[in-house]
Specification:
about 240 residues, alpha/beta, two-stranded parallel ribbon, about 40% helix
Length: about 240
């Protein structure tokens, strides 16, 4: 469960391994990402008004959201995952503003009945582990995920689906320091696919050479300290 479409890529190799082993993977994006990483619009707005491209300036939010949705589906397909669900809540996303998001995700959990949940980290970020004092789409997506998980495991009046308890919850290591990782997954054999998935997000300004360098730096750094080539890191919510 991710805040934005591109967040899926932080552990895409791990999901690809699971799919290759016969597991079912469902990817959920809480927002459409229409207000995130619109690099073309950003670049255009930095130009003098008389030099701006009207087709970019006047692009509707829904049009950009459609582009992001297609990029996410394309990236997921690289790893064999076709069950992609975009809830499409507006940004900035806040649970307090869209409480119905919990029920939407709860319905998905009771439909899919997953054994494992990977979602955004609910912990505050900041220097030296201190609380940042601010919230963003990622934080609230974490809160929605954990609340929906709790509600899915609880029988409530009016329910038609049996309660479902998720066995384990993990957070992507990209939100943590290396000494906070619980384990890493060696995705060296999936490196080329990670580059391909990163390149799929062209609306964010990604292209082949840039994607390759980013993956070498990020996945290579994690792999280096884990004693392998390329790896994705995770933090457990609780010990088993």
């Amino acid at each position: 469960v991710n805040a934005h479409p591109h967040d899926f890529t932080h552990y895409a190799g791990t999901l690809g391994i699971h799919v290759s082993l016969g597991d079912q993977v469902t990817v959920v994006s809480v927002t459409s990402g229409e207000s995130t990483h619109n690099e073309r619009l950003h670049d255009e707005l930095m130009k003098p008004k008389e030099q701006r491209d009207p087709s970019i300036i006047n692009q509707a939010a829904g049009d950009y959201a459609s582009v992001k949705a297609e990029e996410l589906r394309k990236a997921c397909a690289v790893f064999g995952s076709s069950d992609v669900r975009i809830l499409g809540f507006p940004q900035p996303f806040r649970v307090s503003k869209y409480p119905e998001s919990v029920d939407k995700l709860r319905d998905i959990i009771q439909d899919v009945r997953p054994h494992v949940l990977i979602t955004q980290s609910p912990f505050f970020r900041g220097p030296h582990g201190m609380a940042s004092g601010t919230f963003d789409d990622h934080d609230d997506t974490a809160f929605v995920s954990l609340e929906a998980r709790s509600r899915a495991a609880t029988a409530s009046p009016g329910d038609t689906e049996a309660p479902h308890t998720i066995a384990a919850t993990y957070y992507p290591g990209v939100y943590f320091e290396r000494d906070e990782f619980d384990f890493v997954v060696d995705i060296s054999e999936w490196f080329d696919k990670r580059v391909e998935a990163e390149t799929a997000f062209r609306s964010q300004g990604h292209y082949e050479a840039w994607s390759l360098k980013r993956m070498e730096i990020s996945l290579g750094n994690t792999g280096w300290f884990a004693g392998t080539m390329y790896a994705e890191a995770f933090v457990r919510e609780n010990p088993e």
